[in-house]
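Tutorial handout. Part one gives the primary structure; part two gives the three-dimensional structure as C-alpha cells.
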Amino acid sequence: MPQPLILKKSDGFYEIPLFEEFNARALFTTREKSINGSKLVSPTQVHGDSVYCAEAAGASGEADAPVPEADALITRCRNIPLAIRTADCLPVFLLDTSRRAIAMIHAGWKGMRKKIISKTIKQMEIKFLTGPSELIAVLGPAIRPCCYEVGEEFRGYFD
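Part two.
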C-alpha cells in the first residue's frame, strides 16, 4: 500500500515524498531556479497536446538548445530537470516505477479535451515501454469549481 501523498514545503518548494522511495524527485514552486546546476527543460506551452521527449543531447540546458513547443515533457535521462508552468491549469506528474521514466504535463481544459494525459502515457509506452499499470500519477494544485466559471459552450466538451 503506497504511503499517503503529503507535500512538504522547504524554501518555496513543495515536494512529493511518494516519489522519493523510487529515488526520483518531483516538486513544484513559484520560483525560477536551476536544480543541481542544470538548466530546467521548460517547453513553450500552447495549451495543446504535444509531448516532447527530453534526451541527453540537446536537452541538457545548453544556451543554444531549442525550446520545444509542447505541453508535456517525458524523459528517462537522469539529471535533466523538467519544468512546466501552470496558473489555473492542472500539473500532472507521472513516474514509471520500473523504467525510471518521468513525465510532467500541463493539463488545461484545451489539452484535456485533446487527451494530453493519455497521449503522454502512450508516448511513454512507445519510447520507454512503460506500462500504464507501472505508473504513479500525482496531481498538483489547480483552480477549483468555486473559482472558475465557464459558459454554455463547454457543455458538450466533456462527458
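Part three, for discussion. The radius of gyration is 16 Å. Strands lie at 8-10, 13-15, 27-29, 51-53, 72-75, 90-96, 101-107, 135-139.
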